[in-house]
């Protein structure tokens, strides 16, 4: 990328994160709408007016299935070990929570996972592993994986440190998701695997609480 283009893209990315973090919302519905606007609609508009790239370049394709599944498997093993250590030896269980309405109602649990969780996963995948990683990887190569992970951490810290534990599964998986997307040229595999990990984690948390 040229210097001017890099500057504009970097400014847009940082501005999106900062404005989203301070944007006033009063309830969960407004939070979801705001997230979709800043992390899906605005990037698509930015692409349409400025970058003019095909959507497939942002990982919206099946890409290299073999690489996606291979690195996905490695990531599952690594993330499972990290989460196991977090559950057993740290205060993760005391600080990470699932909504009360999902604890004793399996239907509510499925509704929560297949609406809100999958929406968050898909949105973060598109913005961080699709939009950001795809744009900067031509210049930064593998360092883009670290960049998108750090930007996601910055977002969580901007939102508030009290949210750190709630976002911890996403933060832990961020570099692995970046690696999967980088290798496979697709956000489909990283998105599916991240959702499965969070789904199983939430189910395990409910089981332990019950």
Topology:
Elements: H1 3-22, H2 28-51, H3 65-89, H4 92-95, H5 100-103, H6 106-140, H7 143-159, H8 168-184, H9 188-209
Describe the structure in brief.
Helix content is 80%, strand content 0%.
Tell me, briefly, the overall form.
Answer: globular
* Whole-number mean pLDDT: 90
Helix content: over 70%
Number of helices: 9
The helix-strand sequence is HHHHHHHHH
Low-confidence runs: none
Q: Beta-strand percentage?
A: under 5%
Q: Report the strand count.
A: 0
> How would you classify the helix and strand content by structural class?
mainly alpha
Outline the biggest β-sheet: none
Tell me what you see in this structure.
This protein is mainly α and 210 residues long. The chain has one domain (57-209). It contains nine helices and no strands. It has helices at residues 3-22, 28-51, 65-89, 92-95, 100-103, 106-140, 143-159, 168-184, 188-209. Helix 2 (28-51) packs parallel to helix 6 (106-140). The longest helix has 35 residues, at 106-140.
